[in-house]
């Protein structure tokens, strides 16, 4: 019985942290902002994805400049914006300047993932 309680306690602690990271349908890209010099860049979509702990869930997302895929993500965001195709975003569960952090994007009309 002690072992079950121990496992249950750890599950309660660990799983809420993981529940907010993952792929989410975000609709069409409505804005892409290059940022000002160094630092993260912002974009917004038709659907606002709420990430627990981020106080600005309704104004878009940030991609970190240290993300090794940030240039590819930016290119894909521009392509999706220009074509009007919906995207899915992968949120990390973390916040950058109170906005959800995104570390991957895909155009939804593909069936790869």
Question: Could you provide a short overview of the structure?
Answer:
The protein is α+β, with helices and mostly antiparallel strands and 113 residues long. It has one domain (21-107): OB fold (Dihydrolipoamide Acetyltransferase, E2P).
Descriptive overview:
This protein is an alpha+beta fold. It has 2 helices and 5 strands; from the N terminus they run αβββαββ. Strand 4 and strand 5 form a beta hairpin. The longest helix has 17 residues, at 2-18. It is globular, with a radius of gyration of 16 Å.
Radius of gyration: 16 Å
Largest sheet: 5 strands, antiparallel
Instruction: Give me the CATH fold name.
Output: OB fold (Dihydrolipoamide Acetyltransferase, E2P)
- What is the number of helices? 2
Helix-strand category: alpha+beta
CATH architecture: Beta Barrel
Distance between the termini: 40 Å
Topology of helices and strands:
Elements: H1 2-18, E1 22-33, E2 41-45, E3 61-63, H2 70-83, E4 86-96, E5 99-107
Antiparallel strand pairs: 1-2, 1-4, 2-3, 4-5
Could you list some keywords that capture this structure?
five-stranded antiparallel β-sheet, alpha+beta, 113 residues
